[in-house]
Amino acid sequence: MxxxxxxxxxxxxxxxxxxxxxxxxxxxxxxxxxxxxxxxxSLINKNRDWEVEEQYTQVVFPSxxxxxxxxxxxxxxxxxxxxxxxxxxxxxxxxxxxxxTKQRRAMPYKVGGIITPLLTECRSVEQALSRTDLFxxxxxxxxxxxxxxxxxxxxxxxxxSIKRVKNGTLYHTxxxxxxxxxxxxxxxxxxxxxxxxxxxxxxxxxGTKPFTLNDFIRFSNDQNAGADNSIWRTGSKxxxxxxxxxxxxxxxxxxxxxIYTKIREKTDERGKEKINIVKADNLFKR
Length: 286
Fold this sequence. Notes:
single chain; alpha+beta; six-stranded antiparallel sheet; 8 helices; 13 strands
């Protein structure tokens, strides 16, 4: 009897730990082509969900020979969480939460991260996809330029899978989807990841097409599934993962990309996020 009670308690504790460790998440989605994007080109969005922390946006002009870019950064670590460069390439990422945090953090990662090298050195999705030397460390990367969209699922052991789309949509949350990387779902995908995945699929597949920037912004604000499982997450507790920022970009076939950001810069700015819309041509003036 004692052994059974201990086993039950142990199982419960493990379950709580797993649920807690999978709380940090993001929702990524994109569309490309005349059928899906009004006027053609691409739309792409990232909702960044994390424990409450400070953030900021920054435009970076690197040394000669590298592309300027704008990124959303985490203030505590100063790590970039997604961005767009002056060539019109967008790079956003999401956590592979189907691998427990402790295991995931112990795995090899690309020193310095993936986002900055892609933004500073690549001018297109095609060029970014050729940088397989950067594909290390379990995570998901979504890319867009005016001609196509793609995502990369990077699994442990240097395994990765690529999905490219022209005239269609892509969406991702926090569990592996592709046949070659399904083995990396070390645990059952979490309720939040599955719920958000199904909801953004519904919005994209049943929404009135072609989509506009305002449609993607509306999708990013969707609260259909409550505080913890919606695309826009308010968090059921102060310590719960919440949507801290949104990056939405329209990449037209002709003309300057339009960049929308909604960001909680300070930890006490819930409900008072700063919203900004700017054209890339104005952002990257030298």
